[in-house]
Amino acid sequence: MKNTIYPYPFKLSATGDLSDGLVFHVPSFCRSNHKTNKCRDFYKNECENEGYKQCPYGFAVNVNHFLGQKVIFSCLNIDKISDKKMIQKRLSNKDFLPRMPLSLYEESIRDISIFIKSHDDFYKKENEKINTKETYIDKIEILDNTFHELRKLNQELKLQTEHLIFESNNFNWDNIENIKYLSQNIFSTSQLISIRLNTYDFGVNPNLSLYEQKSPIQIHKKFVKVAHCLREYASKKLIKIQIAGESYSSIMANDVLELLPYLILDNAIKYSLENRQIEIKFSEKDSELDVTVKSFSIRPHENELKKLTERGIRSSRINSQIQGQGIGLYLANYICELHNISMDFRLGKDRYFADGIPYSDFYVTLTFHNIIKDENFDYDFDID
């Protein structure tokens, strides 16, 4: 969608797309780097409040609000704000970005504000078009990420099936346990593919779950099932999943609740240090059930904890090689809000550094309210 309002390169949110301005376009360097973790972390952590900022590469950034709409002007070359030497190193001959006096820039912002106030309806419609484009881009990124994971799972399924066929063709009673193990792995991988597709559906259309009919769902059962499905994924990092405590209770919930254990455990495995243990503890008291998942994971900054449930937010300490879009805990939190489930994060005191990155115990506690007591335990999974 072509921008018809802003003269400077801009974003409508910290996680939004960076678009060309009417007069000044996004420099080639910024176009290539604005989706790196370094840039994303800057926008997420530094661009909440109005005012001037300097990005890690020396460009000026200015956060404004027009009629309640946040607008982040970026890639600016403003006197007294930008780092002139850093910018010169990053501009190509094709980039048009002359240095601008601060007074002239501020005058242009006042003109933009006056124009917007006098064209209220037009401004809102144009922003709606831009936001629609950004939503479309977000969905494409989620789809790309989903396909990438599905290809990996499909490759695993193929290898496991080939191994099972080989064992079956060379059958003897000594390898019966291995055949059983391979069969369970194939089932688990196929279940993961199904859960991952459901996660994609929910990520793209979360409001669809609002219209689903609720029914009693056993929490312990869902966690055990997902832990079993993720066993192979965890074993590649030499991680064992342990479950302590029992619960025979249910809550009234939509089918989407099954994604909650997957999102929490997948997140724990992804960011955990290798050769560690993930513990899931169940504790019931009166009409409440607490489920605490403890992993030894990358330790976020204290001020990042409350932001982890925001869409697109990951700790700035996470290496860019660890794939993710910062939507796992966002979706988990959305499911919790739909079902009146409390979700809290807590960090352990002890720290361990690996490759300069701090790790510590990371606790996620889910509190299920108004549980339904049920003594019928109708399933049996062996995590080990």
Automatic annotation (TrEMBL):
Pfam families named among the record's database cross-references: HATPase_c
Chemical reaction(s) catalysed: ATP + protein L-histidine = ADP + protein N-phospho-L-histidine
Taxonomic superkingdom: Bacteria
Listed transmembrane segments: none
Domain (Histidine kinase/HSP90-like ATPase) ranges: 264-345
GO CC aspect terms: plasma membrane
A biological-process GO annotation: cellular response to phosphate starvation
Transmembrane helix recorded as keyword: no
InterPro entries in alphabetical order: BphY/WalK/GraS-like, HATPase_C_sf, HATPase_dom
EC number: 2.7.13.3
Ranges in coiled-coil conformation: none
GO MF annotation: an example: phosphorelay sensor kinase activity
Keyword Kinase among record annotations: yes
Keywords: Kinase, Phosphoprotein, Transferase, Two-component regulatory system
Classification via SUPFAM superfamilies: ATPase domain of HSP90 chaperone/DNA topoisomerase II/histidine kinase (SSF55874)
Protein name according to UniProt: histidine kinase
Organism for this UniProt entry: Phocaeicola vulgatus
